[in-house]
Design goal:
With 204 residues, the chain is mostly helical. It has one domain. Helix 1 packs antiparallel against helix 2, helix 1 packs parallel to helix 3 and helix 2 runs antiparallel to helix 3. The longest helix has 53 residues. The protein is elongated, with a radius of gyration of 39 Å.
Length: 204
Amino acid sequence: DRQVHEVQSYMGHLETSDKESVHLVENEIQARIDNIFSNLERLEILSSKEPPNKRQSAKLRVDQLKYDVQHLQTALRNFQHRRYLREQQERQREELLARTFTTNDSDTTIPIDETLQFNESLQSAHRGMDELIGSGTSILAGLRDQRVTLKGTHKKILDVANMLGLSNTVMRLIEKRAFQDKFLMLGGMALTCLIMFLVVQYLT
C-alpha cells in the first residue's frame, strides 16, 4: 500500500513538471511500478502457502493491489501518449512557422492530376459494373424464356404421348427428363445470381 501511495504521489507531479524534468519523473514512476509488480509476484506465491482459512482473503488483497498498480500503469501510458502528441504538434507548428514558402513550391501544389486519374478509374469501374449487371439481367431473362419454352415443350410432348398411347413407363421417363432440365435451369439461374452478388460485393 505504501509503495502504491508513493506512485500516486509521483503521478501528481507529472502535470506540473517542466519539459526537462518530466522524463525523469516518468522513469522514476515506471521503476517503482516495475518494483511493485515484482513484489506482487512474490506475494502471490506466499498467499498460496497461507492456511486455507486465510488463503482466500490474502489472494483478494493481492488481486486488489495488482488492479491498483495496473490502473497506475495505464494512467502513466496515457500521460506519455498525450505528451508525445503534444510535443509532435509543437514541432510541426514550429517547422511550419520557420518555413518560407515560394510561389512555385512543389509541396504546396495540389495533386490535381492524381485526383482526376482516381475519379476516371472510379467511373470506369462503375461503368464496368453496370455492364456486368446488365449482362447478368439479360442472362436471367433468357433463362426465364427457356423455362417458359420448356414448359410448353413438356405439355406438347405429353399431348403427343397421349395421342400415340405411349406406355406409362415412357411417360415417367419423359417427366423425369423434364424435371432434370428444370433443375438444371434453376441451378443456372441461382449460380448467375450468386456471381452477380459476389461481383457487386467485392468491386464496391
